[in-house]
């Protein structure tokens, strides 16, 4: 079940933070750099990020989280994280589907490290198009993806 998360609630933020750290440590190992901004966040910065959070729950346990920013007709997926114990179980897909189904007429944008092959493949599988890349540090290049539902569903 997918539910809205009140990130201003400390216990909820702690739960999200725990999953975020576990997931981004895996990404850091994949890309060969632990210099990822989400690994430098605190619970307080997470609570004040201004994003809307949604969680995938099973038996009241949080398995994964997606957060978004909405700017008129564009939705930016800011983070999509799944606890490593629940990788490859459809959690990320369910979270992305939820956002897409709730926002059918909006363009979706997301970025991930180019070396994060599992994430890159996930977005490509979901019909996101690579629209650019940007070197952000010596070890990290970001890939930017977009999906315009109106154009792709015709």
From TrEMBL:
The keyword Nuclease does not apply. Keywords: Transferase. Pfam families: Acetyltransf_10 (PF13673). It comes from Cytobacillus kochii. One of its GO terms (molecular function) is acyltransferase activity, transferring groups other than amino-acyl groups. This is GNAT family N-acetyltransferase. The lineage of its organism: Bacteria, Bacillati, Bacillota, Bacilli, Bacillales. InterPro entries: Acyl_CoA_acyltransferase (IPR016181), GNAT_dom (IPR000182). Residues 1-151 form the N-acetyltransferase domain. Gene3D superfamilies: 3.40.630.30. It comes from the Bacteria.
